[in-house]
Automatic annotation (TrEMBL):
Name under which the protein is recorded: AsmA-like C-terminal domain-containing protein
Keywords: Membrane, Transmembrane, Transmembrane helix
Membrane-spanning parts: 12-36
Disordered: region residues: 565-605
Residue stretches of biased makeup (Basic and acidic residues): 589-605
Start-end of Basic residues biased regions: 572-588
Amino acid sequence: MVLEYLKHRWQKISIAILLGVTALVLVLALVINSYWSPILEAKVKDIVATSSDGLYKIDFSSADLHVLRGTIVIFNITLKPDTAVYNIKKKAGLAPNNLVELHIKKLVLSHIHPIGLYFRHRLNIGQVMLYNPELNVSYQLNHTRDTVVKDNRTAWQKISKSLHYIHIRDILMGDVKFTYKDYSGHKLAISQLKEMNFSAHDLLIDSATQTDRSRLLYCKDITAELNNYKGKTASGLYSYSIKSVKLSTSRSQLNINGLIIKPADTSVFFSKSHKDRFTLNLDSAQLNHFDFLSYHKYRILSAAGLTISNGTFQIFANPNQSKTIKDKIKSFPNAAIDSISADIRIDTVLIRRMNVIYNEYNAKSKQTGSLEFNKTSGHAFNITNNKAALKKNNISTVRLTTYFMNRGELNTTFNFNLTDKNHSFNYKGHLGPMNLQALNPAVMPLAMVKVNSGKLKEFSFDIQADKKASRGKVVMLYNDVKVSLLKADTSNDKLKKKMFASLFANIFILKHNNPDNEGAQPRIAWVNYSRTPETAFFKTLWQTLLSGIKPSIGLDKKTQQAVTTMQDQQKQNKKDRKLRKELRKQRRAERELQKEIRKNAKAEL
């Protein structure tokens, strides 16, 4: 069939020409490939050295050019800093804070036109794919802002003699092995990440984009993704995991999903630490208008907003007291912000549907009480330790709406002074109607009181506080309160009712209503609570409000002293009864002994 098709002379000539052209293209491809590799190597090394002012150098083992496919494959690439140049720049105060080292087994550049690169000095690439990349970044704080250098030319101005134009549509890196070394603290901190993906899109370096601030590293968008990250703190007391983290520079957005911070078991934790134990489960956190470049270069965390959604934050007050008392002032939000080494400036934090649980162990009851704040939502404004920002506004305001013990609606407002050395703050709030029996999970273990009945109409407070004391007023309006006083039953590991004391309290002590009568003025409790250094923030709030609740229901200091005196008298009476019982028992034993003596005497006679 083929021979029959080639029976005409012009057909044979056409086939010969086609085969000749094909052979010529293949030969040219081989020649260009062998000729291109050293040219490509020289070009790449020159571009890297020039654009980094000699700080970085690049090497690779070989490069293949596939003319017909428009593809370049480069093998065994190593990008690393020149330590001699780095040390010179460091002495001159010009060294960057971050140093990068990159190892790639294979780099594939697709849809590239080497002839245009060689003759027109224009590099246009469709896709860059990096295989098995290993990225090592080390951070050392050499300066806190951009340094003034003699050569202030842009990257395009530096490379324009070699290249007039660089455009790469997509850069893809999958399954990156990432190691991060932080030398900025007291000791070296090393983080190692896996299951990490990077992608960059629309990289363009030319005369138009050299000053384009909408681009990061000349890219329209850089996306980084981290999946299934797990680790432990240096102390070993906490483990943490993150389902996914995604950063997009075009949207200036950082998204975190599935964040879990889990402490060691209570027995292990409290045996090794005197700090409060906390647990965090967070569905999502989103940082908006995040200035990634400032954070990368100088550890400045600047963002317009942070949204925290759906989670639980649980605190367990440490029951063990250290022999050397340490001030837990850093548990106060304004003190905690001030103690952060990084520069932070977040305009607004939006909180959505968070549950906050405070647990405290009472040594007398040998049980744990819980205060719960369910479905907490609200805003926090001006979260910052930036000196310039604090000069303009040194107050951070937090407004929250929550459901106390999953019942009454509680609205609170906090104002924290971020510059006061005494870490002053104030807070006020209003709690709506609820059944007071809902307080039993907290007041039974912590106050050893059981609420049998009672309706809360309103609870409000207005407190001025600092690290030393809290002062203000508490108003609690309620009806028909009846309680039982409790004591520990060590044999059954539970609490049992004090019958006589409960009866005495309900008849003679407790104020069953506030106000006492309809139309009367309600009782107001004026609070003056002194904080001890070992008392943390949440415990300070709870104890301050509790010191206002007690006198509101009739348990003022005078009444509490009377109750204590009565209880002491009861204990003494119980001891006296026990002593009299022992005396009667002893007298019976003496009489029995005397009878036995007389009996033995008669027997001898």
